[in-house]
Amino acid sequence: MSRHLSLIFKNSLRNKRRSVLTILSIAVSLCLLGVLMALYHSFFHSEAPEEQALRLIVRNRVSLANPLPLSYKQRIAGVNGVKDVMVFQWFGGTYKDARDPANFFARFAVDPEKLSTNFPEYKMSEDQWKAFLSEQTACIVGRKTAARHNMRPGMRVVLAGDIFPVKLQLTVRGIYDADRDNENMFFHFKYLNESLSQGQMDHVGTFSVRLERVEDAGMVAKAIDDMFRNAPLQTKTETEKAFELSFIAFLGNVKAFLLLICGAVTFTILLVAGNTMAMSVRERVREVGILKTLGYTPGAVMGLLMGESVAMSILGGGIGLGLAYGLCAVLRESPSMFTDMSRITVPPPVALIAMGVAAAIGILSCVVPAYNASRRPIVEALRFTD
Fold first, then answer.
1. pTM: predicted TM-score of the whole model, two decimal places
2. H helix runs in 109-253, sequence order
3. Which of 27, 54, 98, 374 might form a disulfide with 320, Cβ 3.0–4.6 angstroms?
């Protein structure tokens, strides 16, 4: 079959308009399929980085809207396998204008002296760390958010609370870098706590727990939850990655949704490619008769026809994957909403699956018309005039 490659590629583009439109339709569909599979892989199959795998999140068992007493922090710190515990309070609030989605970024009140220990992947100069620790109204911002809002050390930032009825006057004292999750703002929990009314003070939405060893995650999580099993406010402890996925779950069954969309896209491509190949084979019935007259076997004829279909599908799939890589690059630069998108890409396994789908579509869309054409008698094929 290799000696017929030039004939296969030539015949693939004999009707240039139809071939180009078919290739583009496959490319767009494979682009969408590639992005969806990249999201699925990122959400449900990617391994958590080592730093993230060493962290647990402790929250109220009922919901995130129900806070936990600050006193839980010391009790959690005493559990075997726990290296450190840090307040990790979501603030929310409004920066500038809440109607502009670009102004949304995560804002957390934390124990500043524990932030570098619990999140060692956050890199910042020693001078900026010292400035952040020494000033109660100081904050630090991720590089991505700082670049988007033109923030720089010394800049004043005002956050108007929504969950908490306070207005915080913060000063940017540092810009941190990280391979992932570099869009947050962190400020002193003590500043927030002292700004609240008596009824809201000394309560925390979540605690971030740093483990001694990754393999102790399940044991430590169970020990923490068991410790508060009979308390008025029970806890739910889970890995940081599982905690992030719980926000995605707010959108519904995302896993099933992505799989259904992938299936629908694949079926649509199959219909488009099948229609194109059926038209192409029908136009060339007489040519098939001539090839068989020249000695081509039915298997060779079928291979030529299917080769054309696979060639167009593979070409469209390659273009679609290139577009998918480009869209993932755009997503990496866009603001994260429910989960960190800074590391989303089309990994090699997903790329191989996408190209496999493209090849399978090329085969399945042509197998029936190619088989029928290759088995048509020579006389009948030569008489065909439709």
1. 0.75
2. 112-118, 126-134, 143-148, 189-195, 217-227, 240-248
3. 27
Helix H segments across 90-228?
112-118, 126-134, 143-148, 189-195, 217-227
The amino acid occupying position 240 is: E
Q: Is 337 helix (H, G, I), strand (E, B) or coil?
A: coil
Helix (H, G, I), strand (E, B) or coil at 176: strand
Q: Which two tokens stand for residue 220?
A: 């430590």
What is d(CA 74, CA 86) in angstroms, rounded to the nearest whole number? 10
**Which residue, 115, 161, 112, is CA-closest to 132?**
112
Q: What is the pLDDT of residues 22-65, one digit of tens each?
A: 888 888 888 988 888 888 887 777 777 788 889 999 999 998 88
Host H or E run for residue 82: strand 82-90
**Residues listed for the chain:** 386
Q: Does residue 344 contact residue 42 with C-beta atoms inside 8 Å?
A: yes
Decide: residue 35, CB within 10 A, 0-12 exposed, 13-18 middle, 19+ buried.
Answer: buried
Structure tokens at 343: 């590391």
Q: Kindly state the tokens that stand for 329.
A: 């690059």
User: Which burial class, exposed, middle or buried, applies to 196 when counting CB atoms under 10 A from its CB (0-12, 13-18, 19+)?
Assistant: middle
Where along the chain do its domains lie? 2-47+253-383, 62-233
